Amino acid sequence: MTFRRLLPFACLLLPSAIALAQTPPQVDQSQLLNRPPAPTGPDETRSLGEFVGSGAPASPGDRDLGEQVILKRQTKATPWSFQAEASVNGTSNVALVNRGARSDIFFLGQMALAWQKKFGENLLAEATVSQGFFRYGELTEFDFDTLNAGLGATYQWKDGISFAARYNFNRLTTATFDREFFTQNSITIGAQKTFSINSAFFLYAGANARFNWNDPSVTTREEYSIYGGARAALTRSITVDAFLRGSYFDYVNFGRNDFNGALGLTARWSPRPWFALTASTSLGLNRSDLKVFDYKVANGGLSLGAVFRF
Fold first, then answer.
1. Which of 28, 59, 83, 210 shows its CA 20 to 30 Å from the CA of 131?
2. CA-CA distances (angstroms) from residue 273 to 212, 293, 305?
3. Whole-model pTM?
4. Which domains does the chain show, CATH number per domain?
């Protein structure tokens, strides 16, 4: 009997309350693709992953606070940008389960329309709308689409310290758009500190709190995270990023508590300001007081992206 046929029966074997409390794996998988924030340079754009997913971001991502750091603008003001990205990825645990993990290859297509505007020297406002399409090679029952819309502001205080707040709406639907199975409204607040070592290397660290209102409500959780990372510019067109994030998830309507960690590495080649080739890998680990929700996962992928500013 195939995994696809076994899946509905496996869900029936779980106590009904636990089954309902299972956050859709699509939510956390999309979060894993959104690395924590890092300041961008004068000729770079923010990663599309910061606009897609419910994350952290992140941004997705995952994704959302600390990601809105003050950006150095180009000489010519270009507040609007359209971004498109296509990637091929592999995951070791599609459903993010404790036992019987299945690996698969998936395609991720993403596009986003973003607006950013600086007010004075210290305040940045931004708004984004994005759409992502996840398509798996074998386990197509996990295919889904994700819509995000949000706005936020970041205030850069002094000595590389910034504060930010952001609202985000996330909606997950089946691949055919005929069924909505998850929605989330979230507010994220937090702070980030950047440590500039030299013109080609910096470190960053931050903390944020994310308050969510989900449907189904039993999946609602509060998220408290700390993170750190580094970016190195190896050449004018090649950058390398590494990050580590630790989070505490409090499922307020279920009495469940999780500790979640993520580690990632990304290499980016951008021979032109509007084009980038990116290779990335990440590891995720979840430990819950309900052992059925423990899991570990490894993801990796290669993506092509383009951005058009206007």
1. 210
2. 35, 42, 11
3. 0.81
4. 3-309 (2.40.160.40)
